[in-house]
Amino acid sequence: MLNSDASPVSVLPLSAITWQEAIRYMVLDKVTVLEWHDNWVVHSARWETRVPAVMILREYYKKKGYIRYSKMNVFLRDQFTCQYCGTSVNRKTATLDHVVPTSHGGKSVWENATTACGPCNAGKGNNKKIKPKVLPHKPSYWELVEKRKQMRFDLRHPSWAMYLN
Length: 165
Ligand SMILES: [Zn+2]
Known about the structure:
By secondary structure, the chain is of the alpha+beta class. Helices cover 19% and strands 19% of the residues. It has helices spanning 19-27, 71-77, 118-124, 141-149; strands spanning 31-43, 48-57, 95-98, 113-116. A hairpin with a 4-residue loop joins strand 1 and strand 2. The structure holds zinc ion. Zinc ion (ZN) binds at residues 82, 84-85, 87, 116-117, 119-120.
C-alpha cells in the first residue's frame, strides 16, 4: 500500500495488506491500483477480479512517526551488529543485551538496550562494567526507516522494489 505521494504508507513494517483488505479498498474506491498479480484471480458467486499487487491511496494518510520499543527495533537501530565485538548478527543469532543488567536495576528502554551476539552476551553475563562500543540511544522514526530501507525486504511482488527508494 502506497501513500498518495507514492512512498510506502509504512516500512516498519512494510505496509503490506491481505488480498481481502486490498479488495475492500478497491470496492470503497479509496485507491488506484498500479500493479496487478498476473496469475492470481479471486472470485465470489457474482464477480471475479485479479488481486492488486501495488495500490496507491487517493488521499494522503498522515504518518504517526511513532516507533515502538521492541527487540527487533533495537536490532534494527544497531543494524544487526553486535555492539561489543562488531560481528554481524541476524534475526536468529541476535540477542538483546541490557547494558546495566536487569539484575542491577537496568531497565528495558532504548537507552539501556543494545544488540549483542550470543558469545558476547554470555561472556558479559551480569558484569555491568563491560560497555558497548557505542552507547545506545533512542532513535528517531526516520532513522529507523532509513536503516530498514537499507535491508532486504521480502517482497510479494517484484514491482514493489521501485517504490522503496
Ligand atoms: Zn559480539
